[in-house]
Protein 1
Amino acid sequence: MKVTRLALRDFRNFAEAELRPHPRFNVIWGENGQGKTNLLEAMYWLSTLRPLRASRLRELVRWGHKATRVDGEVEREGLVHRLAVEVRDGDRRALREGKQARASQYFGALAVVMFTPDDVGMVRGSPELRRRFVDRAIFTGRPAHLATVVDFRRALDARNRLLRESAPDDLVDVYEATLAQQAARLMAARRAYVERIGPRFAEIVAAVAGAELGVELSYRPSLSVDPVDDPAALHAAWAADRGRDRERGFTQRGPQADDLGFTLLDRSARSYASQGQQRAMVLALKIAEIQLLEAIRQCTPVLLLDDVSSELDPRRNARLFEFLGAFEGQVFITTTDPGFLKIDAERRIWRVEAGAVARQED
Amino acid sequence: MAEADPIRRLIHAFSRLPGIGEKTAARLTFFVLDADESVARELSEALGEVRRRIRLCSVCCNLTEVDPCRTCRDPRRDGATICVVESVPGMHAIERTGEYRGRYHILHGLLAPLDGVGPEQLHLKPLLARLGDEVEEVIVATSPSVEGEATALYIQRLCRPLGVRVTRIASGVPIGADLEYADQVTLARALAGRREL
């Protein structure tokens, strides 16, 4: 799939912008703070209906304005799909072919994989970053995963509320059973994904850094039960935790505290891998994610790379561009210095300055 | 401060109704002013009457003018099954199928701790009071949301010690709707809940 047209109105610092991107490489070039990432975020929002950074929709609307809209045309297997998403009066509306669509019917026309400087810190950073990675990666290939995550969260928030309100045991128990059903689905999805991506990830790291590195990716559920991910066993575990959780006022164990383990020769990469090795791992993980989408979902996503080159050393950077050269999909890449980017052909350069974007002759 | 004039008061009153914004409220208001006087009279009488005369059925908690309600009085209905629904529209939806000849119980809500709705806010006590010798099965027909599932489980726990069979309606792809038009979430759940043929 390729984005063939992108139009923004009052989105972040853009008053109005329209792009007809190149089907291969689009270099978005500008100084910091000019709006490069906002262009990527517009596509990310169009694909996932979630802002990249903002916690509130209001933040997407240009300062002093009431509404914002992003329009996109996406070509997939010879067909052009028209997508749009807007915020008006504080409400978000998604449109497919000009008609309002529910989120569950909207997804699927545009799949993006984003790679940001935040991802580069994934190995060392908080478990939250790794959970978000795995849920986003599953969602990109299987949009129904979003409902699993949302329903789990609702059930978890409900149990926490009941614990804090000292609700009677029979009521908490019912929510534990509901939570267990949702959690079982979420955990099974995460486990299956990690089992699929793990071997591919290890292969790519080996190819980049030499086979002796010996890395492994594993799913580390906060709550391990036997049989694995069984709703009844999860329910029993939470019932057993109830007393302590009541004292804490929240649910301590569960998918909300899951983690991914990166190990290097059986030792935690978080503590033992060098920063360069950690970055190589993240790069390999993102490449594995894209390959998995292509292999299993027959979907070539649009890649959104946000100033990643500045975070990678020259060797990994070369490896990234080697991968991009072989990748057949469309790529958007932001940079403050086009000299970093080893892309010479099949490209369009976009200059971003103070919330305006212009194609620059190459 | 001067009191708002009658026009503004009516616009404000309309705009508190669901699905009606400021503009529609103004349109309705000016329609009422332009139309025959009987329109306003009928509307105001009907509004007053509906609040005065409609109450909850003391048996099933349906909204009714007579207590017990017509459904509860109907001797042709099968007293061995009670279908538990979230709301009166839910009951009407099941009635329209013409497939169900048992009795109903209306909860007027679902358990929703996040919105401060606990078991006390639901009409559960009248339900338990009905589970005498005659009732063999309770069908829980709440929606397949997190709240609907939790409510179903809660009802199951309440009824189990009383020796009543508790069942849950199936969820999945709507019949008559083409599979290709079903959304991804519905289809994924329907697949997860598939059964042996």
Protein 2
Amino acid sequence: MEIIKVEHLSKSFGTLEVIRDISFSVHRGEVLAIIGPSGSGKSTLLRSVTHLETVTGGSVSVSGADMVRDGVYADEGTLRKIGLKVGLVFQNFNLFPHFSVLRNLTEAQVHVLGRTPAEANGRALALLERMGLSEKLHAYPCELSGGQQQRVSIARALALDPEVLFFDEPTSALDPELTGEILKVIRSLAEERMTMVIVTHEMGFARDVADRVIFMDSGVIVEEGPAAELINNPRNDRTKAFLKRFSE
Amino acid sequence: MEKMLEAMLQGTLVSLEVFFLTLLFSLPLALPVALGRMSRNRLVGGIVNVYLLVMRGTPLILQLIFVYFAPYYLFGISYDRFVAVVIAFVVNYAAYFAEIYRGGIESIPRGQYEAAKVLGFTRSQTFFRIVLPQVVKRIIPSTANEVITLVKDTALAQAIGVAELFRVAQNASARQFSTMPIFIAGLFYFVMNWIVSAAFTRLEKKLAYYR
């Protein structure tokens, strides 16, 4: 079953077309990686599907509900409902600095989902334990390493039990020695069949963890296919050139 | 001497009343002003902008005189001087505070709004739960500056005949042919602002638990 269905999506900033006529879908339990050179529009694509950007045309539906159909957005209430099915992990974490780790995880559970503080705390504690951060419960984001902050932000997104989780270059702001801990977390989520869409520069990771890979360049999907096949044996010349730069 | 000090304490009380009433009304009033200034509605933004220009572009002493005398000359209405002082101060200080708030609000990174949106917070939840608490921390130093200025500005209330600390000191000075009372008044202002800065330093420390 398709959780995310994107059809003929386009987005321009002024006269600059950042993504053009993009269509793809994501099935339940699937991990999709989006790769491509910087400026290829992959982050914009992610931000468009999560409604952080307003698209210029095309359609996006989440679990069968239209977020935008042929460039026309659903009403406010529908958008909110759809938004709750979707989680996003940012490159720069964007944790709330004035809240403790625990409150970063509980605030939306209580005030958006309407869970009781006890329920929210329970969910938060379980997630933090899973992330290996039980001891950081009462710490503030500024007291954590980048890797720890990113794990908190993954936990924050998971706390709302989204149907699909998006990652926007989740390791790009981290020191190389810290990327491993994040990739490990994402890998374990993949093993549990969490539906995920990951924009990444980690080719090896994309090949190992993703089921399918999309290669984007200049705002269009150049090539799409099973992860190992696309990364090991790319067909398109642009994909080949891009991947070659990474293997060097 | 004793009588003079008693009179000066009376004057200090009036100054403190102006001070606290001004803060009480102008600090909250500045919030809608700041939001109006940032409004995408050009009419609202334009009106607020004119208000800010006038408030910050003309002397407070002139505004005091205007607030007190304009109703009289226009409609023949006269009212309590103290009320006029508070109105003029509130309207003036709200303009300065509003610009401080605006600076604070605009300094909050976009990512905070985006994270809040993705987590499903409504716009007002985002503002009051996520943005505003961070703004408070960021604007403490510039707000402290403004509040310290307010303590000294209360001396302007005498322009429309309110007997605050400085006026009382001047009167005593004239009576005694001595500048002593004025220096003593200076000491009073100094002590008040010492307390104000100490209070802000404490608040700053209290909010230092996060960056």
